[in-house]
Design goal:
By secondary structure, the chain is an alpha+beta fold. The chain is built from five helices and five strands. Strands 2-1-5-3-4 form a five-stranded mixed sheet, with helices on both faces. Strand 1 and strand 2 form a beta hairpin. The chain is elongated and about 55 Å long. The mean pLDDT is about 95. The structure holds FE2/S2 (inorganic) cluster (FES) (2 copies).
């Protein structure tokens, strides 16, 4: 195969900005995000679909970006952790809840957790503790900070039902 045929142009919208990058056919989406777009808030904990650290939003659904080839994201709309806060730095409500409930220790799992919590709250308007733990089962926290993560999510549910 000719060398140029192994590379593909991928055009996507990421955090509202349209970008085109040329990637090897075998490149994973998480590596496109981190290496080509320099959005390093999306982490790689395993790259074998185990830990959830690489979770992003792809066309409105939370996905583990190490399970997607970059070329499969051609034409897609992606949101990463960098796209959640307001331009002035105001945290997204899920980020603020994590902050307020001390739901992070080293922070390595946090971007993926936050993206998965957003999906969880889309799927469940009033999740039980079991729903929350089940919804986040694909995200591993090596600091084992699950208790406060669950409390943070519960605080978001309480806010929504009170508003
Ligand atoms: Fe994708 Fe661990 S890096 S699941
Ligand atoms: Fe350290 Fe979760 S806060 S891995």
């Amino acid at each position: 195969m000719h060398e140029a045929e192994k590379h593909h142009a991928v055009t996507l919208t990421i955090n509202g900005a349209r970008r085109t990058v040329t990637v090897e056919a075998r490149k994973l989406l998480v590596h496109l995000i981190r290496e080509d777009l320099r959005l390093t808030g999306t982490h790689v904990g395993c790259d074998t679909s185990q830990c959830g650290a690489c979770t992003i939003e792809l066309d409105g659904r939370a996905v583990k970006s190490c399970t997607v080839l970059a070329v499969m994201a051609d034409g897609a709309s992606i949101t990463t952790i960098e796209g959640l806060s307001e331009p002035g730095g105001t945290l997204h409500p899920v980020q603020a809840a994590f902050h307020d409930h001390h739901a992070l220790q080293c922070g390595f799992c946090t971007p993926g957790m936050v993206m998965s919590v957003r999906q969880l709250l889309k799927d469940h308007s009033d999740p039980s503790e079991e729903d929350i733990r089940h919804g986040l089962a694909g995200n591993i926290c090596r600091c084992t900070g699950y208790h406060n993560i669950v409390r943070a999510v519960e605080s978001l549910v309480v806010k929504e039902t009170q508003s």
